[in-house]
Specification:
Distance between the termini: 8 Å
CATH architecture of the largest domain: 3-Layer(aba) Sandwich
Number of helices: 10
CATH class of the largest domain: Alpha Beta
CATH superfamily of the largest domain: HAD superfamily/HAD-like
Order of helices and strands: EEHHHHEHEHEHEHEHEH
Structural class: alpha/beta
Strand order of the largest sheet: 5-4-1-6-7-8
Number of domains: 2
Number of strands: 8
Strand content: 5-15%
Helix content: 40-55%
Length: 217
C-alpha cells in the first residue's frame, strides 16, 4: 500500500553530494577577497539556507559589507564548476527510479537558486524525474517557510497527509513541520549530527529505505 503519493526532496545533501564543489566555490570567494579559506567540515554546516546566507556565514559578521561582491564571485565561479565533483548519492538514482515506477509524484524544494538546481539535476540526468523544482529564488520566501511545499502540493493536488518531505538538515525538518506534512531525514547528508540533534521522527540510512517507507513495505 502506497503511504505517500508525493515525495518532495531537498537537493544538496539529500539527492546530490555537492560538498566539494560548494567548498571550492566558497573558498574561491574567500581567496578573492583576501581572506583565509575555511575547512570543509565547517562549511558543510553553513549550507542549507541558500547561497547568500552561505556567503554571509563564510565571510563572518565583521565583513558583511563584502557580501554583495562575494555573491557575485560565488555565483560566477560556482556556475562554471557546479558539476565538477557533484554526483547523486549512492542509491539515489535507483530509489528515484523505483519511486517513479510506483507512480509516486516527485519534486524538489531547495534554497539553492533554481537555475543552478535545474542545471545540476539536468547535468546528472535526473531533471526529467521531477514534476517541478522550486529554488530559493522561485518565491518571495524560502525554506523553512512552507510556501514552497504549498506550491508543490497545489500543483499536484496531493493531500497534506500523503505528502512527504525528505531532507538532510534542520531547515528541512522545520519546513515540514511548518507545512504540517511528514518528514524523513537522511543519514548521508552534509551534517547528520546536526539533523539528529533537531529531533526528527525518522532518519534513514540508505535511499532504498525511502522506497520501503513510501511504499509501506
Amino acid at each position: 500500500m502506497i503511504v505517500y503519493e508525493h515525495v518532495i526532496f531537498d537537493l544538496d545533501g539529500t539527492l546530490v553530494d555537492s560538498r566539494a564543489d560548494l567548498v571550492g566555490a566558497v573558498n574561491h570567494v574567500l581567496r578573492s577577497v583576501g581572506r583565509a579559506e575555511i575547512e570543509p567540515t565547517t562549511l558543510y554546516r553553513y549550507v542549507g539556507d541558500g547561497a547568500r546566507v552561505l556567503i554571509e556565514r563564510a565571510l563572518g559578521t565583521e565583513a558583511q559589507d563584502e557580501v554583495p561582491r562575494g555573491m557575485e564571485l560565488f555565483l560566477a565561479y560556482y556556475g562554471e564548476h557546479l558539476l565538477d565533483a557533484t554526483r547523486p548519492y549512492p542509491g539515489i538514482v535507483e530509489a528515484v527510479a523505483a519511486l517513479a515506477a510506483r507512480g509516486i509524484v516527485l519534486s524538489v524544494l531547495t534554497n539553492k537558486p533554481v537555475a543552478l538546481s535545474r542545471a545540476i539535476l539536468g547535468g546528472l540526468g535526473l531533471g526529467d524525474r521531477f514534476v517541478d523544482v522550486i529554488g530559493g529564488d522561485s518565491l518571495p520566501v524560502r525554506k523553512p517557510d512552507p510556501a514552497g511545499v504549498e506550491r508543490l502540493r497545489g500543483r499536484t493536488g496531493t493531500a497534506r497527509e500523503r505528502t512527504l518531505l525528505v531532507g538532510d538538515s534542520p531547515v528541512d525538518l522545520r519546513t515540514a513541520r511548518a507545512a504540517n506534512i511528514a518528514f524523513c531525514g537522511v543519514g548521508w547528508g552534509l551534517a547528520p549530527d546536526v539533523l539528529r540533534a533537531a529531533g526528527p521522527e525518522r532518519v534513514i540510512a540508505h535511499p532504498a529505505d525511502l522506497v520501503r517507507l513510501v511504499s509501506g513495505e
